Amino acid sequence: QKEVEQNSGPLSVPEGAIASLNCTYSDRGSQSFFWYRQYSGKSPELIMFIYSNGDKEDGRFTAQLNKASQYVSLLIRDSQPSDSATYLCAVGGGADGLTFGKGTHLIIQP
Amino acid sequence: GAVVSQHPSRVICKSGTSVKIECRSLDFQATTMFWYRQFPKQSLMLMATSNEGSKATYEQGVEKDKFLINHASLTLSTLTVTSAHPEDSSFYICSAEEGDTEAFFGQGTRLTVV
Hints:
Distance between the termini of chain A: 40 Å
Largest sheet of chain A: 6 strands, mixed
Oligomer: heterodimer
Radius of gyration of chain B: 13 Å
Helix content of chain A: under 10%
């Protein structure tokens, strides 16, 4: 049984600060890792995906992957109130579909 | 990015009736689509994998006779919730992958069974 663990929060961060979201996964053979943002009542939207160990940056977002520790994180720089949402970590993809964590509720305080 | 359209976005039905949800990939062909379910304050859970031209693959604990999946073309998969009951009320979301990388999600369907 593949598991993806996230702290449900809420995580409260002041506007302009860095928000750090963390995720661990159980399947050591996992190859693909995704971060989705989900607003209440809406379907998830892809923020970033990462396949290789290390950092991947896209605008204000940086995904970090450490396969040895089975850990993936998402950093959001210069946090904005519009970043307030639930962030879902997902592992897998391809023919097996995705296994999602329960999500971290992020609140950016103006 | 690719577009996946899901319809309807919201449906209310009476207990015992059936509801069909459509998932279309608008600008790409998807040999595989996925159906997820999300209960309030819970994560998305994979229900089944829909394969074009063949039977769907269901996750453990998901009743295949209750959740009928048809993937008749490379751009359309349907999920029919048969004999719906209040406990089936949930948010149903489909996704399709373009190539082997990103999964694109439909808008989701909020099903309420009364």
